[in-house]
Amino acid sequence: MRNIITAPVEYEKQLLKQGKKIICGIDEAGRGPLAGPVVAACYIFNPENIIEGVNDSKKLSAEKREKLFQKLIETGIYAVKFIDEKEIDEINILNATKKAMSQAANSLQLKPDVLLIDALKIESDILQYDIVKGDMKSYAIAAASIIAKVSRDRYMFDMAKRYPYYGFDKNKGYGTAEHIKALREIGPCEIHRKTFIKNF
């Protein structure tokens, strides 16, 4: 099987040329599921530490994501924030996503000079660029996408042990046929998003 191409670093290189030193990629996982949190991750770009194969998390197998996740968190500066299903119901998923991203950025050990965000803008005094399909176009965003995805998947594996009827270990809270069938037969559990399941 061929290796997944590493995400490009053109955005990061241009910003470094402009004198920006601390470049942060931000992405999220879990905007669409019926259950569980939305998770945002930040990752500080280091031109001396380009890990081969880092790309949009959706293009990677679960096994590959896990391996890259370990390398990224062991060698890089990052932050992860969760916004739970109750807050998603209160403020809606878009606002919850932006809040998770802002919290992640604000919790970094270093204050970034610039934020590269996958298709969103957040409230921040830091210069930011929203890049459509950024997880395929920016290494820093791709790295953040892997960290967010694996962090959320691990949480949903834990939730599958607590709520075994919904198949969270397989569907991660997304609305698969198996998941919807369980919802209709036994109703929701504590981590379901009420605003997402009102039609089931």
Per CATH, the architecture is: 2-Layer Sandwich
Rg from C-alpha positions? 17 Å
Task: Give the strand order, joined by hyphens, for the main sheet.
Answer: 3-2-1-4-5
Fill in the CATH topology. Nucleotidyltransferase, domain 5
Rounded mean pLDDT score = 96
N-to-C span: 40 Å
Give the DSSP E fraction (strand runs of 2 or more residues).
15-25%
Flag low-confidence runs: none
Characteristics of this structure?
200 residues, alpha/beta, Nucleotidyltransferase, domain 5, five-stranded mixed β-sheet, 5 strands, 15% strand
Question: Any chance you could write out the topology, listing elements then pairs?
Answer:
Blueprint: H1 10-17, E1 23-29, E2 38-44, H2 62-75, E3 78-83, H3 85-91, H4 93-106, E4 114-118, E5 127-131, H5 134-137, H6 139-162, H7 168-171, H8 177-186
Parallel strand pairs: 1-4, 4-5
Antiparallel strand pairs: 1-2, 2-3
What does this protein structure show overall?
With 200 residues, this protein is an alpha/beta fold. It has a single domain (10-155), classed as Nucleotidyltransferase, domain 5 (2-Layer Sandwich), CATH 3.30.420.10. The chain has helices at 10-17, 62-75, 85-91, 93-106, 134-137, 139-162, 168-171, 177-186, and strands at 23-29, 38-44, 78-83, 114-118, 127-131. It has a five-stranded mixed beta sheet. A hairpin with an 8-residue loop joins strand 1 and strand 2. The longest helix is centred in the last third of the chain and has 24 residues, at 139-162. The protein is globular. The chain starts with 9 loop residues before the first helix and ends in a 14-residue tail after the last helix. The model has no long low-confidence stretch (mean pLDDT 96).
